[in-house]
TrEMBL record:
It holds the Pfam family GrpE. InterPro entries: GrpE, GrpE_CC, GrpE_head. Belongs to the GrpE family. Residues 53-87 form a coiled coil. Homodimer. PROSITE patterns: GRPE (PS01071). Keywords: Chaperone, Coiled coil, Cytoplasm, Stress response. This is Protein GrpE. Participates actively in the response to hyperosmotic and heat shock by preventing the aggregation of stress-denatured proteins, in association with DnaK and GrpE. It is the nucleotide exchange factor for DnaK and may function as a thermosensor. Unfolded proteins bind initially to DnaJ; upon interaction with the DnaJ-bound protein, DnaK hydrolyzes its bound ATP, resulting in the formation of a stable complex. GrpE releases ADP from DnaK; ATP binding to DnaK triggers the release of the substrate protein, thus completing the reaction cycle. Residues 1-33 are annotated as: Disordered. The lineage of its organism: Bacteria, Pseudomonadati, Pseudomonadota, Gammaproteobacteria, Cellvibrionales. It is found in: Cytoplasm.
């Protein structure tokens, strides 16, 4: 009797297993195809999004580069403008100073031609010297320097050789005499010194 019950229970279990097996359906080929299409569409959307993100990153990098370049150009323009203003302040009077230099030359010539031995000329000489000193001091306040290279080596950047004279007492290319003094404005040459230069005998 117990054996029959056990067999009946076994049959019921077999029936239940069969029913559960019937409940699990195997996807059809159409369903698999549809699922694959959905997956491919999702992958395509993800790929398109990745491409768009990469493009946006590239555009962002390009715009950053453009902004940096624009900032650099603005800084360069500002720096150039500041340099131009500084040069205008420094060298704006260059033409006027060049026209005033002959006045100093004439004062130097007057001092060199007056006979200093005569007592009557001493007051005149003193007056010219004071005028010349005052003039040079005023030029110095505006950044003008005198180039008086007597006894110095010849420098073509500052001196203009008028002639060469053989001389064995000094090194060749030494300035023996200065016809006309030169002048510089804030380091820039206003006028070269006209000089006589030595050469080997």
């Amino acid at each position: 009797m117990a054996k029959e019950r056990s067999e009946d229970q076994q049959d019921e279990q077999n029936i239940d297993t069969g029913e559960h097996a019937a409940e699990v359906e195997t996807p059809t080929a159409d369903q698999q195809h549809a699922a694959e299409e959905v997956l491919q569409e999702e992958l395509a959307v993800e790929s398109a999004q990745e491409i768009e993100i990469a493009s946006l990153h590239q555009q962002l990098a390009e715009h950053k580069d453009m902004v940096l370049r624009a900032q650099a150009e603005v800084q360069n323009a500002r720096r150039r403008a500041e340099q131009d203003v500084e040069k205008a302040h420094k060298f704006g009077v260059e033409r006027l100073l060049k026209e005033l230099l002959p006045v100093v030359d004439n004062l130097d010539r007057a001092l060199s031609t007056i006979d200093s031995e005569q007592e009557a000329n001493k007051a005149v000489i003193e007056g010219i010297e004071l005028t010349r000193k005052s003039f040079l001091d005023t030029l110095g306040k505006h950044g003008v320097e005198v180039v008086d290279p007597a006894g110095e080596p010849f420098d073509p950047a500052l001196h203009q050789a008028m002639t060469q004279v053989p001389n064995g007492d000094v090194e060749p290319n030494t300035v023996l005499d200065v016809f006309q003094k030169g002048y510089r404005l804030h380091g820039r040459l206003l006028r070269p010194a006209m000089v006589v230069v030595s050469k080997a005998p």
